[in-house]
Design a protein that fits this description.
This protein is of the alpha/beta class and 314 residues long. It starts with 11 loop residues before the first strand and ends in an 11-residue tail after the last helix. Strands 6-7-8-3-9-10 form a six-stranded mixed sheet, with helices on both faces. The chain has a four-stranded antiparallel sheet with strand order 2-1-4-5. A four-stranded antiparallel sheet has the order 12-13-11-14. The longest helix has 16 residues. Strand 12 and strand 13 form a beta hairpin. It has ten helices and 14 strands. 36% of the residues are buried.
Length: 314
């Protein structure tokens, strides 16, 4: 788990202000504002169609906002100087199949800002990728490795990574996490897009949640955990006492307790103090704590009508 959250105030290196993107009559994103600090990972989360890719592409000036502004380290994102400070790994990674990995890196380096040759060499060895082969002959996972070289070999202030772990096996996912930690420790900001919270739980300092093109929440991982439904499984020494204990726990506000397999299954949000005080009146054999699922918290954001908007997003 990262330990960066709660650190002192950091420089804002990406400032998105009131940005709306429309595709004709269809909406992409609507009135999104988000500040991204240096030296942290911001998770960008939402279901498919929530507007994550549209937001990233607008930061890169690949799509033009209908209204609003975007600054990268104090420079308007429409200026080449701003884009040169960004490294981008798209989710729909597509390369010319006939080019070798080395030729591809040279082409992208010329077009999008110089890659550090020393870093390219280090990453090639670290990720165990053969850049002499035509990209079209590589597996999906190895093509994704080429994308990681492109993303991490550039000295960038902001890294925009759109679902970057797609196609990576567990060992490479661990290596990817190490790469993210290293660039953040050097002071870069990372925006990491995903639609699955569990992919980001150990990487992100905070999470920005998009739903139907709107930003509905920006919270730290700790704040999200505080929202999560927690579970306890309790076994009383006297099995007959379990029913009385269960009734008393159920009398507490915001707590649900049920008997399952001769154990008391308790679900709650927030403070456990009231439950502990009830249990203190009984002889308890075992207590098992089951951590809350953050993906369930995100589903609440996705399903709660308070966050609903009209239309769809790209």
């Amino acid at each position: 788990m990262n330990t960066r959250t709660g650190a002192q105030a950091r420089q804002i290196v990406l400032d998105v202000k009131d940005v709306t993107v429309r595709y004709g009559s269809a909406r992409g994103i609507d009135d999104v504002s988000l500040q991204v600090p240096a030296g942290q990972v911001t998770g960008l989360l939402g279901p498919n169609g929530s507007g994550k890719t549209t937001l990233l592409r607008s930061i890169l000036d690949l799509v033009h906002p209908t209204k609003g502004t975007i600054d990268v380290v104090g420079t308007d994102s429409r200026r080449p100087r701003a884009r040169a400070r960004i490294s981008y790994l798209p989710g729909d990674l597509s390369f010319p199949g006939r080019l070798s990995g080395y030729s591809l890196l040279r082409r992208f380096s010329a077009a999008g800002g110089a890659l550090d040759p020393t870093q390219v060499e280090k990453l090639t060895k670290r990720l165990n990728i053969d850049l002499s082969r035509p990209v079209g002959t590589l597996s999906r996972g190895n093509r994704q490795k080429v994308g990681l070289v492109l993303a991490f070999a550039k000295e960038a202030d902001v890294l925009l990574l759109d679902e970057p772990t797609s196609g990576l096996d567990p060992l490479l996912q661990r290596e990817f996490a190490a790469l993210v930690d290293e660039v953040v420790d050097r002071g870069s900001a990372v925006v990491l897009s995903s639609h699955v919270m569990s992919e980001l739980e150990d990487l992100a300092d905070r999470v920005a949640v998009l739903r139907e093109g709107r930003l509905v929440a920006v919270e730290t991982i700790e704040q999200l955990r505080a929202r999560a439904r927690q579970r306890l499984r309790v076994r009383t020494v006297d099995p007959n006492a379990a029913y009385t204990c269960c009734e008393r726990i159920n009398a507490l506000p915001g707590v649900d307790a049920r008997i399952a397999d001769s154990m008391i299954d308790v679900t709650y949000i927030g403070d456990v103090d009231g439950i502990v005080k009830v249990l203190a009146g009984f002889s308890i054999q075992t207590i098992e704590s089951v951590g809350g699922e953050l993906d369930e918290v995100l589903l609440d954001f996705y399903s709660d009508d308070r966050y609903a908007t009209q239309g769809g997003a790209a």
